[in-house]
Records
---
Amino acid sequence: METGRRLASTLNRAALTRRLVQRLTHEEAVVAGIGNANFDLAAAGRRSQNFSMLGSMGLACPIALGVALAQPARGVIALEGDGSILMMLGSLATIANVKPRNLTIIIWDNGIYQITGKQPTATGGATDIVAVALGAGFPRAEWVRDEAHFATLIERRFDEGGPTLLAAKIDDKPAEGLQERDPALIRHRFMAGLGVGRGAAPDRR
Amino acid sequence: MIWSDAILAAFKENAVRLIAYVPDNVLTPLINGAAADDAFVAVCATREDEAVGIVSGAYMGGLRSALLMQTSGFALTGNALASLVVPYQIPAILVISERGIMGEFNIGQTLVARTMRPTLDALGIVHHTLTDESKLRFILDTSIKQAFTTQAPVAFILSPLLTGGNPAASAHLI
């Protein structure tokens, strides 16, 4: 399957994350996977609508799906690394079948398990994650050609048109920030940022 | 009221609306009941730990949700429970149909079943084994309310004493 993978330039995760966060003007929820996806989201500035994991590798997309189902009027974005999405490829099939219009997935693909010693991932070899998403049934999935193309791709409403998957080839530069490691605080701030009380009973709000 | 209807009624009374599940023979009436009822959104996940992520996200977004799975599927959830649900204090409602005992024919199921309660205990997750239809309503209603009020997960283990067990088992037992 020709997806444009070979034409994708190598970009920088921190720079693209900053560009994305600047574009989020409607309190979109962002769920970032463990490690560098989280760290660069933190480096892009504190937002109450950010959620970061401390473990549970691979669950950024399922968590984002849950948020998207709970809040269909809000744009929801999952930021996930190639190693993490490879651990939970089935979630792409689930999402393609549930069809949340307000969910966008962005894969940062540098072809390595960067944080554990740069061992190669399957996407550094034969596996094309955009082809996987299209095969799973995503109506839209594409490679980011360059930074200008990324800017164009995120110049849209995030509460409609999904589910969409964007994959960016990125370098192996270290992340520019570090996440907080207080799970109760992370959850509490995120729920407050989404306007949800701790009981999560929408009928009682 | 049969057990599956009692569980769905308790979900409704407590505004639990999203049902994430991985299919299981015993759970079929519960899954079909949720799928056929407009009060619920039913999502079929590919793995149980994926479903843990979905219910966690839904809770944080304001949609109360439950996760249905069988014993062997629970064994896939260890890291998701230990690194997400428990430390983040997410009131995940876990419904586990119990295989591995009382007429199990598959030795793989008998072994993995023994890891379930020790895992729940190690993580400090409150669990109730449901055996009796007459006590279902009380246990479910009070425990679901406790979970959301105290932001703590709870597991309901559906014993073969309640469900009759796997209907396919009799063809395999000698």
---
Amino acid sequence: MIGIVSYGTYIPKFRIRVEEIARIWGEDPEAIKNSLGVAEKSVPDLDEDTATMAVEAGREALQRAGIPPEKIGAIFVGSESHPYAVKPTATIVGEALGIGNYYYCADLEFACKAATAGMQLCYAMVKAGMIEYGMSIGSDTAQSRPGDALEYTAAAGASAILIGRDPIAEIEATVSYTSDTPDFWRRDLQPYPSHGGRFTGAPAYFRHVTSAAKKLMETCGYSEKDFDYAVFHQPNAKFPQRVARMLGFDEKKIADGMLVRAIGNTYSAASLLGLCGILDVAKPDQRILLVSFGSGAGSDAFAIRVTEKILSYPRSLRIWDKVKNCVYLDYALYLKHRRMIK
Amino acid sequence: MRVAIIGVGCTEFGELWEKSFRSIFLEAGIEALRDCGIEGKEIGAIYVGNMSGGKFIDQEHIAALIADHAGLAEFGIPAVRVENADASGGSAFRQAYMSVASGMHDVVIAAGVEKVTDSVDPMGVLSTSVDQEWERFVGANLPALYAIMARLHMHEFGTTEEDLAKIAVKNHKNAVHNPKAQFRKEISVEDVLSSEVIADPLKVLDCAPLSDGAAALILAKEEIARKLCDTPIFVEACTQASDYLALQCRKDLVTMGSVLKASKEAYRIARTEPREIDVAEVHDSFTIAEIMAYEDLGFAKKGEGAKLIREGETEIGGRIPVNPSGGLKACGHAVGATGIRQIVELVLQLRGEAGKRQVDAEKALALNVGGTGATAVVTILSR
Amino acid sequence: MVPRFWRKIRYRYDVIGSYCENCGSHYYPKRELCPKCRRKGKLRDEKFPDEGQVISYTIVNGRIIAMIELKNGARTLAEICSDKVEIGMRVKKAFRRYGEDGETGIIYYGTKFVPIC
């Protein structure tokens, strides 16, 4: 049995409220909160970035796994905001975790689904007998142009998933649906991303998430009744709610994974943080549907079945409790934290 | 062999825009030579204290430069720069002293010179005296490290920010009577407390300014000294000690181990007790440093340094006047020149040539410290 | 600063100091020679505790720099990521950016400390 052996998360403690951003641009905060289902988002500290958050999440996953660091045979870090355009974040994490020098390694980019792609790579390497454990980390300090709609949700966070045998949650199957769909992109050397507005909906997010989810369920012979939980990529609260309905999932099944409501869209970490929210409370034999989405575009779907081992896994520090500890910033401090003013 | 100081010279300390590195050394050196009436070619060697010609003015090999411009390269005089951060001057003095005491030379110059204002970030350069890998890297410059010592001293012994301010006030008051001092105006405790915070709890007026300046001493063996000079001032002891560079490696943050060791050794060699010292020049690069010096030199018990300043014991006219020249705070801190300037002042005091800041003194002590205390040089002089 | 930073990376990214097998002393930061045993000493790298408490501190350039005593008695100077600090405050390690070599140079990562709530 191969699957998730351990998981770790990191959310910076700073937040900015929708009201504060709307105040600057003269927009209606209630209308925005209603349309996005998000009231505030996380903001990194002045000395945090994708690498620092990836290390914190990775350290939590490693520490809770209780394995010697050298047994990790691969590290992949997926992000849209790697600190270097050339020089991997994953080696910084590898060094900080103290895993030695014999490991497979690369940084990945596939918008918000880079880290689930990393999970697939780790899964395959464990299955092939190439490694004993592999870690995939999604981490982002998402960028948004001031005044753009994305500013209300582009947030910061990291999640680390350790894959290996004898898991606390088995990966029963994984399927990907991919196409060349330019819904959201950032050209080289451009500071901010661009997007196709409403084009990011039906042709992008919904088409890929539903296609991957349906193919997965078809392959495994599952229906929505076979799943106790579902977690989808969450750029806002509305998209995952809608896609859950489209796939026939009850609202209750996605509630524990909707971290976007507390912290906004953490991009490469988003669907994984949602998964961790569910793993914090799931019971043995319960099944989770995880479907990520990365613009450009693609979705990775996973059928994950929780095992007995989760009962002896240290889950006392829950992510929904972690996100409660926060400090609110005004817009000027927010700009300083995002390094837009120096 | 007994060694005496027979000549002293010192420039004004301050922002000497019109004067260059080359000219200030010459000014101090010539004053010292005139003071004892000897010719330059009678000097056997030059020892120069200078923290960083390289970082302040992009010039290394400054001992050679100085020998050259002093006209002594003409005679091929041996010249060496001695560097121990801001204890460079005291360290140069000790090297000079040892060269005469050992019989190697008969007459030598011990000098110090620093040209700080030609650089854009003098405190940044002075901060190269701290551990670059483990202190500077985490954001601690020199004021920050003294602030950490101050905070703990306040926490453990009840020293207050007012106590620190009083050190600056005293030294400014003394400097009014020192024509070479950078700041010759009195300040109040309120002035210090309301000045901008540099590194909490230290404020701008808790920190000595970084200044241009040069000072020079002529040392001679006793036999020659007595021929050339009516009041040779004898070096009873000149000791030096080191300590771990990074504060985190020291045994006790509120004690400078190097000062303890060097002063104990100096008192032993000079057969003197702390209470027999009549006047002292100590290293007040930051006000807290003077309070710690009182304790580590044995003028006060550990933790009771603040008592001395509160009770006025270290004022001119007090039990043990400290920094009658105005100290680093009011005289200015010309880094490598400071250790020499301190001894110049004590020589003037012991000779009775200190004008309105005169202290009645037979025995004097100078303390020159490098960085946060990884080097300390203690010199005891007598008439 | 590239090679200088790189040589110390594992000692910056985590709290790793030296332990002398001869006399049992702990040193932080890491050393090449045991000051007590000198050539008789046998130093090896050791992972030091992640937690400690504040012995003293200052605030300079808007940052809190503190002397922290780790649980094994060794001391380290580090930035504390917090808006308040006091002597005796308990702290634990965090992985953060210490700075960068301008806009085009490398980024310096290292260990800072955060209050234990």
